[in-house]
Amino acid sequence: MNRILNVKLENCFGIGKLEKEFKFTPKERAQLIYAPNGTMKSSFANVFEYLSKDQNSEIKDRIFSEKVPICDIKFNSQNLNKDMILVINAETKVSEKSITKFIAKAELKGR
C-alpha cells in the first residue's frame, strides 16, 4: 500500500515556503534529503523534532518573529501523530544496541 506524507511549511526556522509530497511504497520506504549546507535540512529536521516533542508552538521563524508560521503535515490525509516521528541527527546520542534495533530487520538480527 502506498503512503503519502504531505508537508507544507512557511516561516519555520528559516524555511520561507516549502510544499512537498513524499511518496512511500513497499519498495521505497525511505526518503533522502540531500542538499548543500545552508539550504534548510536542519530547519526541516527541527520542525519534526519539535512536533515529536509536542512543542508545536516553538515552530517559528526565530529571526522574523512577526511572520506567522504555517506547519501543516499530513500522513495519508490525516494529521501526523507525534508518536510516528523519529528524528536522529549528529547530536543525538544513541546506544549501539539502539542503532542495531533501528537499522536491522528482526530476521537480520538473528544472523
Summarize the structure in words:
By secondary structure, the chain is an alpha+beta fold. It has one domain (3-109). Helix content is 22%, strand content 25%. The chain has three helices and four strands, in the order ββαββαα. The chain has helices spanning 41-52, 96-103, 106-109, and strands at residues 3-12, 15-24, 70-75, 78-79. The chain has a four-stranded antiparallel sheet with strand order 2-1-3-4, with helices on one face. Strand 3 and strand 4 (78-79) form a beta hairpin. The longest helix has 12 residues, at 41-52. It is globular. The model has no long low-confidence stretch (mean pLDDT 86).
Q: Quick gist of this model?
A:
The chain is of the alpha+beta class. The protein has one domain (about 5-110). Helix content is about 20%, strand content about 25%.
Could you list some keywords that capture this structure?
4-stranded antiparallel sheet, 25% strand, 111 residues, 4 strands, alpha+beta
- Give unreliable regions as ranges: none
What characteristic shape results from the CA principal axes?
globular
Structure annotation, total helices: 3
Largest sheet: 4 strands, antiparallel
Across the major sheet, the strand order is 2-1-3-4
Strand content: 25-35%
Mean pLDDT: 86
Through-space gap between termini: 29 Å
Rg, Å, rounded: 16 Å
- Element order: H for helix, E for strand: EEHEEHH
Overall number of domains: 1
- The chain-level structural class is alpha+beta
User: What level of helicity do the residues show?
Assistant: 10-25%
The count of strands amounts to 4
